[in-house]
Design brief:
The chain is an alpha+beta fold. The protein contains two helices and three strands, in the order αβββα. The chain has a domain of about 50 residues.
Length: about 70
């Protein structure tokens, strides 16, 4: 085994760890949004889908009803 292969294996292990951490963070954020009643947004084949707090999946944007001036 040469040193180049060792570096590649180390890079693979580090990338796998980054992926694990990222996946965990995404799952946590999705669950937190559900608990707070915030819709989760997904994209599939370039189309946006919204998972509403009641579990319903829709393509209608639930955020368009939110006024930005009300948040200020």
């Amino acid at each position: 085994m040469n040193s180049h292969q060792v570096i590649d294996i180390q890079a693979f292990i580090q990338a796998a760890e980054f992926k694990r951490i990222g996946n965990c963070a995404v799952r946590k954020a999705l669950e937190e949004n559900r608990q707070l009643g915030i819709p989760n947004v997904f994209s599939r084949n370039g189309k946006l889908y919204y998972e509403l707090p009641n579990g319903e999946i829709t393509t209608e944007d639930p955020f368009k009803e939110i006024s930005l001036s009300a948040a200020a």
